[in-house]
Amino acid sequence: VQLEETGGGLVQAGGSLRLSCAASGDSFSRNGAGWFRQAPGKERDLVAAITWNSDATYYSDSVKGRFTISRDSAKVYLQMNSLRPDDTGVYYCTSGWYNKILTGFGYYWGPGTQVTVSS
Q1: Which long-range contacts (CB under 8 A, 24 or more apart) does 59-68 make?
Q2: Which residue, of 36, 93, 101, 118, has the fewest CB within 10 Å?
Q3: What is the tens place of the pLDDT at every residue in 17-71?
Q4: For residue 55, what are the contacts with CB-CB under 8 A and spacing of at least 6?
Q5: Strand residues in the chain grouped as ranges (E)
Q6: Other beta carbons less than 10 A from residue 86's beta carbon
C-alpha cells in the first residue's frame, strides 16, 4: 500500500482545512487508517483513527469536536475546523491494524503534508 497526503497549507486561526490521503493497493480498504501530527521539535502523535468499516473512530482530546475523520475504500480524510496555532505540524496518514494505530504503530505511512496555522 502506498499513501499520499494532500490538502495541507497555510491558514489563519479559526479557519478550516481538509486533508486527503489517497491509497493504492488492495489491502487499504480492509485495514484501519489514521492521521498523526508531528509539531516542530516534538514526537509524532496520533490525532484521529478509523476502523476499516468506519464503525469506530478515535480522536485525541486536543482535536475532539473540531476534527472529523472519514474514509471510503480508497481514501481517508481529515476535516479540520476551528484551527489553532498549536495544530501546526506535519500531518501523516497511516494504514494498518486499528488497535495498533491506537498505540502509535501504523504499518504503511505517507510522506506527510505541512499544515501551518497562523495567529
Answers
A1: 62/86, 63/87
A2: 118
A3: 999 999 998 889 899 999 999 999 999 999 999 999 999 999 999 999 999 999 9
A4: none
A5: 2-6, 9-12, 17-24, 32-38, 44-50, 57-59, 67-71, 75-80, 89-96, 108-109, 113-118
A6: 12
Element (H, E) at 98: helix 98-102
Grid cell, residue 38, equals 508531528
Cell of 1: 500500500
d(CA 101, CA 47): 10
Asked if 114 and 43 touch (Cβ cutoff 8 Å), the reply is no
Phi/psi of residue 2, nearest 5 degrees: -115, 135
Cell 464503525 belongs to: 55
Is 92 strand, coil or helix?
strand
Mapped onto helix, strand or coil, the DSSP state of residue 52 is coil
